[in-house]
């Protein structure tokens, strides 16, 4: 008589804690993602999450990153490749939806994950283009300058206009591990960019600016200071930034599908646009 197949009900869904980080790094590597332990620590510090455990082994993860009560992103949804087809992704998403509560939700989907998210009521809103490569040797714009600690409130306010939610906690965390550049007009911060360690090198994002030209100058600020270093920028197709990034040696290597639940009118201010994401996970 053949043994009965294992059922998904034998898998326990438990809160994601620091003791799960090592296993989470292993799962992200299995998925081909570049996240280091420090990147997972950042995500967990800003998020609540759950892990799926079978026989003491972590076989799935999900994080929910809230931006106060404005919205939340669901991210780091990973299922061990040996466990797929058992409904585990759905169980993790159900747990994430409970954590998120009534907040509007955002996520970036892979093609494989798209059918599940659609079943859960998420709607496609656009496409992310991931660019990365070794920084070229270019000149920095004379219009940009390093931000000071006193600029953080203005950066948070500008990001709120562009993103449509208050990400003070995220940006304060980034200020502690990375650097910001700003452009000022009439004495006020009108655009900013952040550079921080991530994955194989560093990521530039978020980048918020009044227009495409300003966004390029902010990105140039950091490219010019990192010749030969590995940089990554995640943008969206509608910004028009992608072709210029490729010209700077940051090749288009993939991306994802942006989704929202519910599909509501964008509340972002048209005078400030997000040209590069903080990350695909964090929005």
TrEMBL record:
PROSITE patterns: GNAT. It comes from the Bacteria. Residues 11-143, 142-264 form the N-acetyltransferase domain. GO terms for molecular function: acyltransferase activity, transferring groups other than amino-acyl groups. Signal peptide: none annotated. This is Acetyltransferase. It comes from Rhizobium johnstonii (strain DSM 114642 / LMG 32736 / 3841). The lineage of its organism: Bacteria, Pseudomonadati, Pseudomonadota, Alphaproteobacteria, Hyphomicrobiales.
């Amino acid at each position: 008589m053949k043994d009965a197949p294992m059922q998904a009900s034998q898998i326990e869904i438990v809160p994601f804690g620091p003791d799960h980080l090592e296993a989470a790094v292993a799962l992200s590597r299995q998925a081909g993602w570049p996240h280091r332990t420090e990147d997972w620590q950042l995500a967990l510090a800003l998020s609540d999450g759950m892990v799926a455990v079978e026989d003491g082994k972590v076989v799935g993860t999900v994080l929910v990153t809230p931006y106060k009560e404005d919205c939340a992103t669901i991210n780091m949804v990973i299922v061990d490749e040996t466990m797929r087809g058992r409904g585990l992704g759905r169980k993790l998403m159900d747990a994430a939806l409970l954590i998120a509560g009534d907040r509007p939700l955002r996520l970036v989907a892979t093609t494989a994950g798209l059918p599940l998210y659609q079943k859960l009521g998420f709607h496609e809103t656009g496409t992310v283009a991931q660019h990365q490569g070794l920084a070229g040797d270019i000149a920095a714009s004379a219009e940009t300058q390093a931000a000071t600690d006193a600029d953080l409130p203005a950066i948070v306010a500008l990001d709120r206009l562009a993103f449509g939610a208050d990400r003070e906690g995220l940006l304060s965390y980034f200020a502690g591990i990375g650097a910001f550049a700003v452009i000022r007009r009439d004495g006020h911060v009108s655009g900013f960019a952040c550079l921080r360690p991530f994955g194989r090198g560093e990521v530039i994002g978020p980048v918020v600016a009044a227009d495409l030209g300003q966004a390029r100058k902010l990105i140039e600020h950091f490219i010019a200071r990192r010749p030969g270093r590995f940089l990554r920028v995640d943008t969206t197709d509608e910004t028009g930034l992608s072709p210029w990034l490729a010209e700077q040696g940051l090749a288009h290597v993939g991306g994802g599908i942006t989704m929202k639940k519910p599909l509501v009118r964008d509340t972002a201010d048209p005078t400030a646009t997000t040209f590069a994401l903080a990350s695909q996970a964090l929005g």
